[in-house]
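Severity: low
Component: inverse-folding endpoint
Summary: output formatting inconsistent between runs
Steps to reproduce: submit the following structure tokens with default settings.
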């Protein structure tokens, strides 16, 4: 793959976070952004995420790590849990960018079958690179698998992309 290509990544932020967490680890977003550039030639990485004011430091870190954040207004369910479904926004952005010829190839980062139509569209337009599933093979949607698209599992890169566990004070023998 030519790393000088202008490839874009479209990331379902909640799907990425929850998928990796369900496998028992934390993603180092800074490493992940570098890896996307080196492995897939990603120039622009859109991360679609619900906007919750108390997470402003997280948003700042994600932006400093090289992600372009696309915020979705959040509503709260009856239990007070935030809901910021970004699927439609992600599909619309990727489709618009494809029609405006802004990228050579797209990387979709999600395990959700709602993106199968987008994947098929990108395949037809010869603008598709890969699906990066934050879930394992069993949890990745059958609808995505049925597209015949290339699917890679982020968990396979855990040793490279995992966040280091913080050391306990004096845990390394220093004061």
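Observed output (run 2 of 3):
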């Amino acid at each position: 793959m030519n790393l000088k290509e202008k490839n874009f990544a479209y990331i379902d932020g909640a799907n990425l976070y929850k998928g990796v967490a369900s496998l028992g680890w934390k993603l180092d977003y800074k490493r992940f952004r570098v890896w996307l550039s080196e492995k897939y030639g990603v120039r622009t990485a859109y991360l679609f995420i619900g906007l919750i004011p108390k997470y402003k430091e997280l948003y700042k870190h994600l932006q400093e790590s090289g992600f372009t954040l696309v915020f979705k207004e959040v509503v709260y369910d009856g239990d007070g849990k935030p809901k910021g479904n970004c699927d439609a926004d992600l599909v619309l952005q990727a489709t618009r960018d494809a029609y405006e010829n802004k990228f050579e190839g797209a990387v979709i980062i999600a395990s959700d079958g709602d993106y199968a139509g987008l994947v098929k569209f990108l395949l037809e337009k010869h603008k598709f690179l890969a699906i990066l599933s934050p879930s394992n093979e069993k949890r990745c949607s059958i609808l995505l698998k049925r597209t015949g698209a290339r699917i890679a599992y982020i968990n396979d890169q855990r040793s490279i992309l995992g966040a280091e566990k913080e050391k306990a004070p004096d845990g390394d023998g220093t004061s």
